[in-house]
Structures are given as C-alpha cells and as structure tokens.
Design goal:
The chain contains 11 helices and 5 strands; from the N terminus they run ααααααααββββαβαα. The longest helix is centred in the middle third of the chain and has 33 residues.
Length: about 290
C-alpha cells in the first residue's frame, strides 16, 4: 500500500505544507499554529472521505493512530527542549501522513526511519548553519569564543584528563581511542555552540516587534511584574503587557530555523518509497 495513489496524494500534500512552513519559519522564525492544525484537518478529512468511499475505515484509523503516536513524540521532543512549539506541532501533523501501511510493524519502522533521517540531516544542517552565522559575525564570535574558553577552562582540563585516562586503559587500541577523541572534542563543541548562541543569536528588539513565543535572553520587569526568560517563550498575556508598558529594547534569543530538517527527512522517506516501491514492505519486514 505504501505507494498507492492515496498515499502519493498525502506525501505530495505533506511536502507542500512543509515547504510553506520552511518559508514561514525562515521569514518569521515561527510556524503558525493554524498552518500545522490545518494540515491535520486536511489529512484526516481526506482519509475519512477515502475510507467512506472504499468502505475500509482502517485508512482513517491509521491516520488517527499516527497522530496519537507523533503527539507523544512531539511532546517528548518539546519537553526535552529539542523542539520549539511550532516544530513539535509540525511533527505531530506529519504523523497523520506517515502511517503508510496497514501493517503496523512496517509503520513503526517508517517512523523510525523518519526520526533517524531527521536527526542525522538536522545535525548536519545545524552545523552548517552555525558556520554560516560564524562567517557573518566573525569578529563578535572570535571575542566570545575566547571569553567562553576562559569561562570553561576547567571543562577542557577535565576532558583532557579523562581522554588520557581512557587512552591509558584502552591499551592504545585504535577503535577505543576514537572514544577518547570524542571526549576531548566535547568541550570544544560545547564552547563553540555557546559562543555561536551568545555572539550570533541574540538580537536587540523593539517591544512592538516582539511576537508570541519569542525567547527572552534575560528576565525583564514590566509594570512591576517579572517576565521570565524560559523555554515556552513570551505568552500572549505577557506580550500584551510588553507592548502596553515596556519602552526599552529587549534582548531576544533567535533560534535556527529548524523546519528544513523536516523537509530533508520527509524527502528522504519519499525517495526511499519511490526507489523501493511495493518492494519496500518486504524490505522492511526483513530489517
């Protein structure tokens, strides 16, 4: 069933929705709730109409089960602080599409492939985007990197000690030495990411330009009340208070537009389905 006409329509619908989400994320650094919720509504409405026409309601049930499973995954990623709210809602919406077969063992493997593709392509994408930010803000990044190296010099010292101890107890075996290299690189990557965040992703913003969900860099006091900098971002009520009472510039932490990773992973699933066609079911059964 993976490359049936019904599933092809859903895959095309998904790719169109993600492309427009990428455009919106790139321009506004957010994806509107209505955009994600409308994908859920369209997909479930389509599944319901196909089920009613064919008399096979498993096509609709599969979409609902996919929605429930990705609702759990989306919330796990959100509360683990891997996803912002818009990203979590987009992955939840995609769950209604990715139930591509009536065999749920296959569906779970498709879900696993999607998450794996997302994590791998997302990591590569974030790394290249970070290099791009460093290139654009080299002078600020260089100063911040030196500062963070001084702040975390104890971390470098600890990593070097652990790496040397690991090499000593691994008896100089090449494969085990790779772990020592990872231990040594960890503080460098940590300081690099911290420096990118502090030098390239903090923007001074006028109060009337702040939007719901924006991440404050630091707590602010508005009309005698503290608005905390937290993962959930500025709430609608807090935003109204800021626009009404606050007059100074606000430091906002801008995230990397992450919806591109969903596009890469979704295209990867389509390529796999296109290359294997109906043979994909047999291929997945033997994984």
């Amino acid at each position: 069933m993976i490359l049936s006409s019904e599933n092809l329509f859903l895959l095309i619908l998904g790719i169109i929705w993600i492309i427009f989400a990428v455009i919106q994320d790139f321009r506004k650094r957010e994806v509107d709730n209505i955009w994600n919720f409308s994908l859920i509504a369209f997909v479930l409405a389509y599944r319901a109409s196909v089920s009613a026409y064919s008399g096979n309601y498993w096509f609709l049930v599969n979409g609902i089960l996919g929605l429930v499973i990705f609702l759990i995954l989306g919330n796990l990623f959100y509360y683990a602080r891997l996803f912002a709210g818009g990203d979590a809602k987009l992955v939840i919406a995609l769950g209604t599409i990715l139930s591509l077969d009536y065999n749920w063992l296959i569906n779970f493997k498709i879900f696993g492939m999607f998450i794996l593709l997302f994590l791998v392509t997302g990591s590569i994408y974030v790394l290249f985007w970070s290099f791009f930010l460093v290139f654009r803000n080299w002078n600020r990044f260089r100063k911040e990197f030196v500062k963070q190296c001084k702040n975390y010099k104890a971390l470098f010292f600890i990593a070097i000690i652990f790496a040397l101890l690991w090499i000593l107890f691994s008896f100089i075996q090449p494969m085990l030495i790779l772990i020592a290299i990872v231990i040594f690189l960890f503080p460098i990557l940590f300081v690099f990411s911290k420096s990118v965040e502090e030098s390239c992703m903090i923007k001074s913003t006028a109060p009337d330009k702040v939007t719901e969900g924006d991440w404050l860099y630091e707590d602010i006091i508005v009309n005698g009340k503290k608005i905390s900098a937290n993962w959930e971002g500025v709430s609608n009520e807090e935003l109204k208070s800021i626009k009404k009472y606050y007059r100074r510039k606000i430091l906002i932490k801008k995230g990397i537009p992450f919806t591109h990773s969903f596009l890469f992973a979704f295209v990867g699933i389509i390529i796999i389905a296109w290359n294997f066609g109906f043979q994909l079911m047999d291929h997945l059964r033997h994984l």
